[in-house]
Write a structure and sequence with these properties.
CATH topology of one domain: Nucleotidyltransferase, domain 5
Distance between the termini: 38 Å
CATH architecture of one domain: 2-Layer Sandwich
Bound molecules: adenosine-5'-triphosphate, magnesium ion
Radius of gyration: 23 Å
Number of helices: 13
CATH superfamily of one domain: ATPase, nucleotide binding domain
Strand order of the largest sheet: 3-2-1-6-13
Structural class: alpha+beta
CATH class of one domain: Alpha Beta
Shape: globular
């Protein structure tokens, strides 16, 4: 039904969508099948493998990371009984910047209808104001809001009439090397990259309801090595960022304060209740033996270690990201997801210290996901499918970097490093060139006018 074919053929099964989440703790693959004409997709299977060679969301050992991706893809292939050859990929990594800019174009002296080319032009005008260092690229270009003749709050101006079109644009900028390493890793594992979704965006789409994103809310995906922060209001992302702190830092804190090995600390931290009730005696003592040594700590001591890290993360780092988003109100509060959102009592604890509503979220599609693989640590992976569907429905919603540019850069780097390469390595056997947003618009115009 979905045969693995050479990537040169450019063959893709139009019925199947694949998301690959390259996490610090695990690599997850989600396979979804389209639900006929509804424009929705049904998750039909998932695969997973422990991550190796990835630290704080960054690839630190390419071959190990490639093996993890292959294993996760193999696991998914076994579950769905299909061979997979392409995926939209989510990753985090440090140094993710959200930059806002404004653009304006005139539609002429008298009012006329806004066309696709106008939207492309106004986006370009706003991008002209964004300075991107040569070592970085714009991964996502996200129209936040349009205005027509000064009337703001317009979601989609296509087909509307006016004389002046303004845009408020968000550009998500990441280091080129981070993207190239992720691209290389996934392609080396035999999967062609069809697109990227930065982790905070995929997680927010996987966790946030439409009501929450319209009212204004922040999603924080607390993974193993990173926290993805996404501030939404009026249904649009106002800020996407990555904080290089995750649940593994809590494990390290427990290990270093108690002077115990990491694997034992990981076990103990999962026992901690961040919001103990009156019936939970904080003087109760947790006793355990490890490698012949006896340890004994009160619940209060353990709770304090975990609370300390959570407090620092949320009251300092997350709060300052929210402030950068420039959104005055977040009535729908905080939605936490990712593996560390499983910490007992974390919602009550954060609600108390931040004084906002807090909800722990599993993927919105949890009921369509395999049992045991539908918890908060899978929200990002499930969100990739939602991202891919939204992008198909409306190509102006999340505009992606040209895959060709990433491929060209990657090939240039490979050539620089290894001069004696085969034709295949040089790219003649590589994936078919993929067009970016502006090239697609150009094609559309050619079709219309020639
Ligand atoms: N019951 C639990 N209580 C507390 N923490 C937990 C629990 N279960 C898992 N975690 C933590 O969740 C983290 C892993 O989360 P997740 O699987 O979302 O990470 P990831 O997606 O691989 O990493 P990242 O998104 O940072 O790249 C680990 O730090 C793990 O200790
Ligand atoms: Mg993650």
């Amino acid at each position: 039904m979905f045969k693995k074919t050479s990537t040169t053929s450019g063959y893709r099964d139009p019925e199947v969508l694949v998301g690959l989440d390259l996490g610090t703790s695990k690599v997850t693959v989600v396979v979804a099948e389209r639900d006929g004409p509804s424009g929705e997709a049904q998750i039909i299977g998932m695969g997973q493998a422990p991550s190796h060679g990835i630290r704080k969301g960054l690839i630190v050992h390419l071959d190990q990371a490639v093996r993890s991706v292959r294993q996760a893809v193999g696991d998914a292939e076994n579950m769905v009984g299909l061979e997979l050859n392409e995926a939209t990929v989510s990753f985090s990594g440090g140094d993710v910047q959200s930059i806002r800019s404004k653009g304006m174009i005139s539609l002429g002296r008298s009012p006329r209808t806004v066309m696709q080319l106008d939207i492309a032009r106004v986006i370009e005008a706003a991008q002209a104001d964004v300075t991107v260092p040569s070592t970085k690229i714009i991964l996502h270009t996200i129209p936040v809001e349009y205005s027509l003749d000064g009337n703001s709050g317009i979601d989609d101006p296509l087909g509307m009439t006016g004389i002046r079109l303004d845009i408020d644009l968000e550009s998500v900028i990441v280091p080129m090397a981070t993207v190239q390493n992720v691209f290389n890793c996934v392609e080396k594992a035999g999967i062609s990259v069809t697109g990227f979704a930065i982790k905070p965006l995929a997680s927010a789409l996987g966790a946030m309801t439409l009501e929450e994103s319209s009212a204004g809310a922040v999603t924080v995906d607390i993974g193993g090595g990173t926290c993805g922060v996404a501030v939404f209001s009026d249904g649009r992302p106002k800020l996407l960022s990555v904080i290089p702190v995750g649940g593994d830092h809590i494990t390290n804190d427990v290990a270093s304060v108690l002077k115990i090995p990491i694997n034992k600390a990981e076990e103990i931290k999962k026992e901690v209740n961040l919001a103990p009730g009156d019936q939970d005696d904080q003087n109760d003592v947790l006793e355990f033996d490890h490698m012949g040594k006896n340890y004994s700590y009160s619940n209060a001591e353990l709770t304090e270690i975990v609370q300390c890290r959570m407090e620092e993360l949320f009251t300092n780092l997350v709060r300052s990201e929210i402030a950068n988003a420039g959104v005055s109100m977040l009535p729908a509060g905080l939605i936490i997801t990712g593996g560390a959102a499983r910490s007992m009592g974390v919602d009550q604890y954060l609600s108390r210290i931040l004084d906002i509503p807090v909800r722990v979220s599993a993927p919105l599609d949890a009921n369509r996901m395999p049992p045991g693989r539908n918890g908060p640590e899978y929200t990002c992976a499930a969100g990739i499918i939602r991202y891919a569907l939204e992008q198909e429905r409306d190509p102006y919603r999340y505009i992606e970097q040209s895959m060709d540019m990433i491929i060209d850069h990657t090939r240039a780097q490979i050539k620089k490093k290894l001069p004696g390469m085969t034709e295949e390595h040089e790219g003649n056997g590589g994936p078919k060139p993929r067009k970016n947003f502006f090239e697609n618009i150009l094609d559309l115009l050619k079709e219309l006018f020639y």
